[in-house]
Amino acid sequence: MYYIRLQRDGWKLKYSAPDGEGDQVTVFERRVNDHWTLRKLAHAGLAHSAGRGVYFDTHELFNSRTGEVISKMDWEWAELDGARLIWAAKGCLHSGRLDAKGLRNEKVLHDFSPMQLEKLAAPY
After folding, report:
1. Is residue 118 part of a domain?
2. Rounded to two decimals, what is the model's pTM?
3. Over residues 6-10, mean pLDDT
4. What's the order of all strands across the beta sheet hosting 69-72?
5. 94 with 103: CB under 8 angstroms?
6. What domain range is 57 assigned to?
7. DSSP H/E element including 120
8. In a domain, 97, yes or no
């Protein structure tokens, strides 16, 4: 369902392949502007680092004019909001804009890291 939803929301399925470490990686892309493409690497498998589940996403930025790839392995989620790029990493929600030279005007929109889960007894 997740991959179908991504495609419904404008992500283009590019390919799926083993990553050499036991995971299957499916790559989706969204064009940001004339220079940059946002890639979502959807990982599925048992070979993962601590703090990640069996299914997780990483991201990278690809410059189609220069071939430059900027890996964003700590981005857990990323999406376009109009011309603005937004992403979640290390408990914070961030935003920025991509121009010909790369990611600019980065800022933290909100830091969620102080939040803690609260145990609630049913009924809620």
Report:
1. no
2. 0.85
3. 94
4. 12-18, 24-31, 36-44, 55-63, 69-72
5. no
6. 2-84
7. none
8. no
